[in-house]
Amino acid sequence: MDVSREELIETALYKLFKDLDGIRNDDCKIKPLIYTSEPFLDEHLPLLETISYGMVQAFCSYLTQDIPVIAGRYEFVKEVLASEGLPTDDFGGNCGNEVIQDFASGCAAFGSVWTGIQLGSIREGSAFVEERRLTIAAHELMHNIHDQINPRGEPGLGSCRGPSNFSCAGPVWFYEGAGEFFGRAMTQYLGLQNYATFVPNDRSGYFLAGEYLSDLDFLTTRRNKAFGVENYYSGQIAMELLIANRGLLPVLEIWENLDRGLPFPEAFSDSIGLSLDSFYDIFATFHNRIYAEAGYCEGKIGCDPWTPPTALPDWYATIPEGANQNEGNPNGPSSNRLDESCVEANELWWSRCTELEYGIPDNPENGDHGYPLDYQRITKIDSCSEIELIGFNLDGWAVTFDAREKAGASRATVSTQYYAALRYLDANLDGVVCSSQAPD
Ligand SMILES: [Zn+2]
User: Which of 50, 133, 269, 275 is the most buried (most CB within 10 A)?
Assistant: First the structure.
């Protein structure tokens, strides 16, 4: 408890790696079955193999089935599932819902793992690894691993799945926290990159209140307040705290207990030796302190500069439905401006200086709109009600022609650059902002 975030991470990783060395089996009979297709690069296949084989070998004694690991577009995922006769959702995929924008996604349900479309792209003629994508691949693999330990909670094939707070998958902070923690920790264990820390914000770039992020019980029931990311953030730190104090095996035992039919609170207290309520109290105290001290960020790796917010949206009272409702927030839209030095240094600023999850392509697409495309000359509005500051008769911007069609926003103007400059208004990540036909 009385440690810094950095000490917490170092302790958790030390114990994790020691425990993994004790249980790993490099002659594991269970294998990953890897399928790749464009735009996944052949140069990155050894990376995907390192992650897939490394995680299967590390958790071998907990596994019962080979793991289909698919990298490429979501259409390719569907092709593989169909041609191999593997289980699918109603749409022929493994996400459980139709995936419109596949650039920033990954899924692990129905017994197979989609690690995302690629691990990086070609930049200036050579293959470039996007480090966050390595953690996403490991995150999705971890979901398959805990689902093999507790198949009843598997989101696609399990026998007691459901939206209840204590369905037998456990609460969201638990399994998504595992995805986030092991996603980062395993890429370090396998020698690919160091465990990254960061300052948490919601998908519009706003800071989240520490008290809110510290309340795991509240997050369990109100999982979507910050577009669903808060359970990932807080769950990762909860997982660090559990493994630093108890080691890996008792945490894996929680899934074994769930598979034995224990409800989550009992599954937790039986292996951790602490009631769930006590753990939530401990976590709240600890998390409030480290958040107040330094956000989440103490190491240099992956850290943005941390400025404690002076004013915060009231996360308990209102559910933000896009950036427009946060006007007047000092940490608001102005912080969504792109980093000037990045824009200056990058001709392709729309793809190089924007967050990965927006999936903005290198090759810009523009309709015949006549508006200037330099970042500096694009009017950065704070909400869609100000769109007339850019021009009259506009009904939204779409990142590509394809995104416009998929969102059904036929009246939106296509411009990759305008979308990139205004991406913070795209709360539902459909690639379209300020369209009356596809509102956020
Ligand atoms: Zn996940």
Answer: 133
pLDDT 10s digits, 316-374:
333 333 333 222 222 333 357 787 767 777 788 898 777 766 778 888 999 988 888 98
SS3 365: coil
Give me ligand 1 centre to Cα 330, in Å. Answer: 31
pLDDT exceeds 70 at position 299: no
Alpha carbon of 83 to ligand 1 centroid (Å): 26
pLDDT of 101: 73
- Listed by start position, the domains of the chain span 5-294, 339-433
pLDDT value at position 88?
A: 96
Ligand 1: centre distance to CA 156 (Å): 13
| Residue environment code for 215-246, b if the CB has 16+ CB neighbours within 10 A, otherwise e | bbbbbbebbebbbebbbbbbbbbbbbbbbbbb
pTM: 0.71
* Cis peptide bond upstream of 39, omega within 30: yes
Beta pairing partners, 114: 70, 107
The per-residue pLDDT for 320 is: 36
Task: Report how far ligand 1's centroid is from the alpha carbon of 349 (Å).
Answer: 29
For residue 381, the CA-to-ligand 1 centroid distance in Å is 33
Centre of ligand 1 to C-alpha 301, Å, is 22
